[in-house]
Amino acid sequence: MGCSVCKRFAFLQGRSALVYACRSDQGFPIAKLLKAHGACLEIESQISGRRPISYACQFGAVKTVRWLLHHDVNSIAFDRVKEWTPLIYACGGGHLGAASALLGAGVRRCGLEQRDHGGNTALMIAAKHGHSCIIRELLLHSANRAGKNTEGLTALGCARHSLHRDAASPADQGPSTAEAHDLLAIAEAADQAESAEQIQRDAALALELQAQYSVTQHPVPAPSARAHLPQHQGAPADERPREAMQPHGHAGPEPDNSGTEVCGKPGDRVICLDRTSNAAFGCGHVCLCVQCSRGLRNYPLCRKAGAAIKLWM
């Protein structure tokens, strides 16, 4: 043939012969014949800009859709009028076979979340027309139910709007409008229940992590043989409190605090801040050195009873 089939065949209302061949599976052999003679599978209609795969999805030509996908045609191209993708045409017409063929090619390739000029996704279009079988298939492929169109409606809102519209005119009511609404409502209720369970699991995990953090920051000293001995028993002589080493009835000399400014009330215990904290109390706190912990029967901050134990570091 002297030139391309796309140029030789005359356009009828802006559509090529291949477009008409792809509108049904009965024209599938003709579409293959045209392709064999050089017809372009990506040719667009002059008026709407629609491609053959768009018409095949609109009229539910499943065999033709699969054949076009096998030849790697652009399956997310939208028209210039409504900006509908082939998947939206399949969902709007209720053609489960065509929609399944597109979804089987991959979520990204079919444009699952692509929107038209009104912000509607394929799930919203299926909900508006009450195609419950299409909705179920889209939900199995994790279609987004929380998205909203330009009217602020989710997929459930679109189904509810169609349900109210059909209730006002029962003669025009679709066979699956109520079923589509119930299907989306059940899915949303399941999401809310799962969110509540997730919140409970997150709260329990946060409490567990907080408990682990507390134990890490304030570890309880490991029990030792010296910890179970009477107070000061088993400790070296140089680590025993001063009053414990004096004979009964004789008080030892008072520590020399000359030259040190002491603040507080009479009887307050003075501790140093320059030596390493190596005395652990029974409560698990460590903030004193062995010299300053001598004679203390309670930890100064939490007031829990227990003698100090030296940490060997």
Topology of this protein?
Elements: H1 5-8, H2 17-21, H3 28-36, H4 52-58, H5 62-70, H6 86-93, H7 96-104, H8 107-110, H9 122-129, H10 132-140, H11 155-168, H12 177-217, E1 279-280, E2 286-288, H13 290-293, E3 309-310
Antiparallel strand pairs: 1-2, 1-3
Helix pairs in contact: 4-5, 4-6, 5-7, 6-7, 6-9, 7-10, 9-10, 9-11, 10-12, 11-12
Describe the protein in words.
It contains 13 helices and three strands. The chain is mostly helical. Strands 2-1-3 form a three-stranded antiparallel beta sheet. Helix 6 packs antiparallel against helix 7 (96-104), helix 6 (86-93) packs parallel to helix 9 (122-129) and helix 9 packs parallel to helix 11 (155-168). The radius of gyration is 41 Å and the shape is elongated.
Number of strands: 3
Distance between the termini: 94 Å
Q: Report the sheet-strand fraction.
A: under 5%
Rounded radius of gyration (Å): 41 Å
- Amount of helix: 40-55%
> How does the major sheet shape up?
3 strands, antiparallel
Low-pLDDT stretches: 222-264
Q: Strand sequence of the main sheet, in spatial order?
A: 2-1-3
General form: elongated
Count helical runs.
Answer: 13
What string, H for helix and E for strand, traces the elements in order?
Answer: HHHHHHHHHHHHEEHE
**Mean pLDDT value:** 74
Structural class estimated from helices and strands: mainly alpha
